[in-house]
Specification:
The chain is mostly helical. The chain contains 14 helices and no strands. The chain starts with 5 loop residues before the first helix and ends in a 6-residue tail after the last helix.
Length: 280
Amino acid sequence: MVKWVNIFKGFLMGICELIPGVSSGTMALLLGIYDQFLGAISKIVSKHYRKAILFLLPLVVGMAIAIITLTSLIEYLLENHVVPTHWFFIGLVLGVVPMMLRISNYKVEFRGSHYLLIFIAVSALFVMGMNRGEEQAINDIAINFPLLIKMFVSGVLASMTMLLPGISGSLVLLILGSYSTVIYAVNELKNLNLGILPVLIAVGSGIVLGLLVASRIIQYLLRHYTYLTYALILGLVIGSVFAIYPGLPDTALSWTVTVLSAILGFAISWYMGADNEGTI
């Protein structure tokens, strides 16, 4: 039976994928469905495909609703209220850390290699965050074969990373120079411009392939290298702050709004993770 209540969970995951640096995998962790999410994706091409589809359907619908309805709002917030908006998501991301530390039982299980992996993951995201640059909004694109190949590859890489808590598909799209193209294509589809469909089909096909491959790899790592994988995820979560960091406020009012936004994000994340007592 389809659990349509999961549309809301998918909606929250979809919001995360609109923000460069925030991962829908992080939200899946907070919602307590990360292992189910990975398992369902990996089983979509197995004999258990029917059960997997029933689980994923409301999540996909919710994510699609978020992407279609909130793209313009997210663009507005990032353009006009970038600092408090990003600090809200920084709070949301940091609120995951207490849950990850509890799940990983780091005081007992972590050794030097685990802390080294955390350092490597944080450092990698620091470098990515510092070198991501900024894409300008675009008003038109010329659809050709090289562009479609680029969109397909971007979709593959972005979807493989979106399953990892801490690093988002949007950040990867930004690094690859594809983020503005995807946002433009989504907005054009909302305006019923069907000529943009080849771009969205190329990205979508890449996303599907990336999800199928990445879900199996991550499940394998969690099964055979559990605590090393926990350490990697913890490092990615912490390191993603560098990818989101927008700078500091410049007025008293902005400081107030930003601090409150960060606290609110942390509180929401911490509260959602407090009830997640199981393993990933």
